[in-house]
Amino acid sequence: MPAKPVLGLALGGGGARGFAHIGVLQVLSEAGVRPDIVTGSSFGSVVGGLYIKHGDVQGILDDLQALFESDLYRNLGVGRIHVQDRQGGSFWHQAARFVQDRIVINLAQSRPGLIRLDKLQQVTEFLISEDRWERDGMRLGVVATDLTTGEDVYFTSGDLVTAILSSSAIPGFVPPVQANGRTLVDGGVTQQVPIRLARKMGADVVVGVDVGQAINADAPIDNAMAIMSQAEGIKSYHYRMLLNRESDVVIMPPFIGIHWSEFNRTEEFIQAGRTAAETHLEEIDRAIWRFRHPWLSRLRHFSP
Fold first, then answer.
1. What are the phi and psi torsion angles at 213 (to 5°)?
2. What is the β-pairing status of strands 134-135 and 138-146?
3. Identified catalytic residue from 36, 186, 204, 248
4. How much is the pTM?
5. Half-sphere exposure of 225 (CA within 13 A, CB side)
6. 162: Cβ–Cβ under 8 A, 6 or more apart, which residues?
7. Using one digit for the tens of pLDDT, what is the confidence trace for 73-104?
8. Beta strand pairing status for 205-209 and 182-186?
9. Which residues contact 242 (CB under 8 A, 6 or more apart)?
10. Which of 38, 53, 105, 220 has the fewest Cβ atoms nearer than 10 Å?
11. Is 114 within 8 Å of 173 (Cβ atoms)?
12. What is the pLDDT of residues 147-160, one digit of tens each?
């Protein structure tokens, strides 16, 4: 019998839109598709870490619900970030525009971020109670970005809180994390969907879950800043799509004009993940089949 491929699931960053990962995991579980490798960037690393911690989706939901009902989350200040007229553009440009709005205040205070690192660390420790990188054969990987060199930094063992905290350190919002002699920020800066990490960890077939923004065709383009914003969004989108080609299957819920901080819409995002995953189940099956039957796959490709 042909060998079973090592299946990698790469969970991308995107703030609250990352709740779509939970819907994807639900559908995969119901279909009997179990990843051997789970990699995460930014909020994808949080979901990935919780999935390895519990081994099921309900545990993820329970932990996140407990967090949202806690004083830790209320004191984090995420609810103050969302601005209604900042919904267009890429994740990073949304962040940049909001920081621009607050830059004078923050320069006066000489702060490296709008959210205190110690508060985010407390939240991460609330969710991640042990350094579990493996469960029943599933392995976890987390990607961050070296702010000095621009290199991807991969975590597959060690202090899991530090790994997830580094991967979630959104530039301008959260101060960089100092770890292993490096200055680290959000993994989404270089690898929004950590497909390359999944390959490096040995995945034969990789399913990427991209919860980033699509190009917003309705974005305003009536002034210089709006034009630059739209151009930056287009550039970011095309770079993501280029990297996404390195996966075998890309699941991409249709998020347009949805701000990354809208944690009040989590049920909607979970359903969006479910819907997108359901439409890709056959494609995942085909990718696995092609790996197990490479010669037959080539014959089918050239047959009339």
1. -80, 140
2. antiparallel
3. 186
4. 0.86
5. 9
6. 155, 177, 179
7. 888 876 655 544 444 445 555 555 555 555 44
8. unpaired
9. none
10. 105
11. yes
12. 999 999 999 999 99
At position 100, the amino acid (one-letter code) is Q
Q: Which of 219, 211, 205, 227 is nearest to 91 (CA)?
A: 211
Dmax (CA) of the chain: 69
Residues 36/138, Cβ–Cβ less than 8 Å: yes
- CA–CA gap between residue 163 and residue 182 (Å, rounded): 12
Phi-psi region at 257: left, alpha or beta (left = phi > 0; alpha = psi -120 to 50): left
Q: Is 56 a catalytic residue?
A: no
* Identity of residue 253: P
* 238-283 confidence digits (pLDDT tens): 989 999 999 999 999 988 777 777 888 999 999 999 999 999 999 9
Please name the helix (run of DSSP H) or strand (run of DSSP E) that holds residue 250, with its range, or none: strand 249-251
Alpha helices in 176-223 (DSSP H): 195-200
Q: CA angle at residue 155 from 154 to 158, to 5 degrees?
A: 155
Query: Which helix (H) or strand (E) is 223 found in, with range?
Result: none
Active-site residue, from 36, 41, 42, 90: 42
The tokens describing 8, both together, are 């990698």
Q: Is 129 an active-site residue?
A: no
What percent of the chain lies above the pLDDT cut of 70? 84
Instruction: For residues 279-291, give the mean pLDDT.
Output: 95
Q: Are 292 and 4 in contact (CB under 8 A)?
A: yes
pLDDT of residue 176: 93
